[in-house]
Amino acid sequence: MFHHTAFASRDSAATHAFYTDAMGFKLVKVEVAPTPTGGWAKHFFYDTGGGEMIAFWELHDDSIADTWSPAISTGLGLPEWVNHLAFAAADLDDIESRKQRWLDNGHDVAEIDHRWCVSVYTMDPNGILVEFCTTTKPFTDEDHKDAERLLADPAPPVMPPPEAKFYEAQARAGAST
Q1: Residue 7: which of 88, 110, 124 has the closest Cα?
Q2: Where does a domain end: 43, 68, 93?
Q3: pLDDT at residue 177, rounded to an integer
Q4: In CATH, what number is assigned to the domain containing residue 89?
Q5: What is the reported pTM?
Q6: Which of 15, 67, 86, 112 could be cross-linked to 9 through a Cys-Cys bond (beta carbons 3.0 to 4.6 Å apart)?
Q7: What's the Cα-to-Cα distance from 10 to each of 60, 68, 70, 76, rounded to whole Å?
Q8: Domain boundary among 68, 96, 119
Q9: DSSP output for 49-67
Q10: Domain range for residue 24?
Q11: In what order do the strands lie in the sheet with 40-49?
């Protein structure tokens, strides 16, 4: 269990709209404090459920170069799917509800059945891939043994990729990019 994760945001208003409207999280705390180098920062927290939170920083500090990216994967030169945030969904009905909420809020969605869990994905305004995931089968002793074997194998067999389904939000359909 974690208390919170924190990320930088270039657009606090867009971040707030996404995490309240599209994600359904509640803003619970904002702190404004000085930075160690003489600027200031706004730290805002959202309740994600189960006593855990996600937080963002709005930075106002001249000592921080303006060239940074809040995207936790592409900002580091990695594909967007590498570093991402996965939130728990209760079950497949919850997955469907989360997917529809994102679509209703103008966010395109990818859905993947990973053979042991089902996930839906969209991008937040900071370029961070977010996911809701639900486990669809219990883990067995055989799963544990297989996981240990595959982790230790320097050249493990590669399985075929799961099929992805893509859903385009109606609010964005036909919009130019």
Answers
A1: 124
A2: 68
A3: 42
A4: 3.10.180
A5: 0.89
A6: 15
A7: 10, 9, 7, 16
A8: 68
A9: ETTEEEEEEEEE-TTS-TT
A10: 1-68
A11: 4-8, 52-60, 40-49, 26-34
